[in-house]
Amino acid sequence: MNKEQIKKEAAIFGLVCMIGYSILILVTFLTAYLNPNYSVMVLINYYGEAHWEFVLLLTTFPFCFWAFYYIIKELFK
Fold this sequence. Notes:
By secondary structure, the chain is mainly α. It has helices at 3-34, 50-75. Helix 1 crosses helix 2 (50-75).
């Protein structure tokens, strides 16, 4: 696996993470919007997962930034 292939795969992973975050925000918004009170309670650490979610967030954000940079760079070649 060469260096360019690793960059492409990191960009694809970052793009998938960005899409996943967008879907999560969309579902949260629609749940609140469709509720008569226009509100929703988001419980953090309900199952003891807060630390793992924080690690996942810190791990995937650099890939999201890399994907954004890589895609913009490829578009303006």
